[in-house]
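question for whoever is on the cluster today: can someone run the full assembly for these? two chains, 719 residues total. i dont have access anymore since they changed the login thing
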Amino acid sequence: MKRMWRKYLTVFVLAGLSGGLLLQTSQSVQQAEDELRRLEKSVDNERETIRVLHAEWAHLNRPDRLESLAGQYLELVPSSSDQMLVDPAVQLPDPFKPAIPSVKPAYLMNAQPVSIGSASPSSVVKPKTKPSKSDESFNDLLDNVQSGGGE
Amino acid sequence: MILRRLRIHSIKIAGERSFAIDQARGRLVLISAVFMLCYMVIAARVIDLTVIQGYLGHERTASLQEASSSVAAIARADITDRNGVLLATTLKMASLYADPNLITDPEGTAKGLVKIFPELSYGDVLQKLQSDKHFLWVRRNLTPHEQYVVLELGQPGLGFEHEDRRIYPQGELSAHLVGYTNIDNHGLAGIERSFDRFLGDGKPLTLTIDIRLQHALRREVQKAMSDFTAKAGAGVIMDVTNGEVLAGVSLPDFDPHKAGAADPDAIFNRLSLGVYELGSMFKIFSTAALLETHGSPMSTTFDAREPLKAGRFTINDYHAQKRILTIPEVFMHSSNIGSALMGLEVGTKALKNFYTDLGLLTPMEIEISEIGKPMVPDPWGEVSTMTASYGHGVATTPFQLTSAVSTIVNGGFFVKPKLILSAGNDNQNKSDLRVVSPQTAESMRKLLRLVVSDGTGKNADVPGYSVGGKTGTAEKIGVKGYDRKRLISSFVGAFPMENPRYAVMVMVDEPKGNKKSFGYATAGWVAAPAVARVVSSMGSILGIPVRTHNGAPEISASLKKYVSFEDE
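^ ran it for u. tokens below:
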């Protein structure tokens, strides 16, 4: 009789153990699934954020905005054709080698501004310094989207 | 073991009791067999789940997951320019709504919202939040950051509705070519319309446009329009070797986000849908036709002393020379009389065929669906031949004209305008359909250069880039016949003329003369300087090396012996 009890006890303990193990496994699976869902959601969110940032980047780098910013803050104007190079035969008076090798053709390195008869004034581009819409922020753009496109 | 003990007992027990014990044993065996079967089924299922599906089914679940996530993420695809700059994209926009019944602390919530969105007024928001409705929009189209800050308020009565919205980061810059969509993200115009399905399937598109050139062209057409208080304008930059449209501007333009509210005149695509009588630019084609069909030498002369009577028309010269002109002189002084005589010499049928070969008389093919049908004289008699030689009576789109000019200057290979950048290198995209011979193409290049170096297009010259081109000043059709005051001034140029790579066309609708142009509103004063500014910008944007002649004669120099400069 005593031996039988011991056997029953073993069986019950084993059953209890395996039950507990099963519960724990299922719980951890559930947790892992929750974590997975959370991660997937955050990946989706990050992707969406990246898309928004891409759009914002493109919007802030609009050529007209860059041009007006350059006009405001840089003392540079677009180069005109008579400021550009290039006669492979002519050497710069004081040629120097660039620190980083250039991918440009070698002769450009030795280029010298060429002197051609002066351009008619109309051929030199003068950027408008302040186009009206240059300060439009990305949020203003998003505000514009309100009504969507066409009807 | 119990069974065995029973068996031991059964040996001892006999009779009625032994039967009962046998029966019990049989039942026990049956029950344990059923249990064993159940456990075996469970064991088999466990092995199936863990081993078979766990290892072998791995790929299946992964692909299943991917499919489900891509179904969720399938948004209308991006459109980019040739350098990968975003022209159109889709963003998931959150719009904030409130359920006032669920809001516990209207004052606090309103304060919080006003802090996040300074443009909202506290009174308005509070009034909204205290109403007894169940759904109220607070603000549309929030950025992810704003959304995050609103969530931090922790109000259960605030919620978000997510919608995919089409965003055009470049605004109106390429609105006519890229097009726009309606609120359900279906394309209504431009590339958005013609590739609606394709984009909807999540496949991105790359256009041939270069947004930097697009901007430079727009700036200069705009400047020409404002300098000469013009009504409208258009401009094209095309790669003459393969017809890729590097920039296309139609002004006035519109904000594609608010296309529904835009003026129909602004939405109208002047590049591909608008057809215009472009005037003297057609002399490029009639002269090429003469050189191609008759092989006439440059010294061939045409009598431009008297205005030409043709039916009820009298053909006059704008820049009248009143003498006998050679081919280069007719071209550089833009003599209508001379061109009309050239047209007669070519002949009606040959001229019509030549124009058709250049794609000027039939609707063009391009990847957008806004395509205008050219206006062609019908019936086409001898008078039509004469007027069509200098671009009257024939109306085409700016895209068509630019590609026809590209066809002539690139050495004679047919050019079709393209908006979608195709994979592969430039040589693969080159057409091998020849329209004019290399000799004609070279003569035309010289003639075009002559117009800029010595003729009506001097203002289009940019030192070092050897620009060639042709002016075109056409009178618009008024109430009775042509209206001398309402002009369309245009210029089409190509450079560098020794081996042309780019064609630039600028058209200005109804310019009015100003002080700087001495009151003139003709192409040489309006459109030619604009083209020069575009070419100059292109030079610095694309880093096009300038050419020096180093004393070598210009390409147009060989024609100068046919030109008499005595009257200048």
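summary bc i know u wont read the tokens: The radius of gyration of chain B is 38 Å. Chain B has a mean pLDDT of 85.
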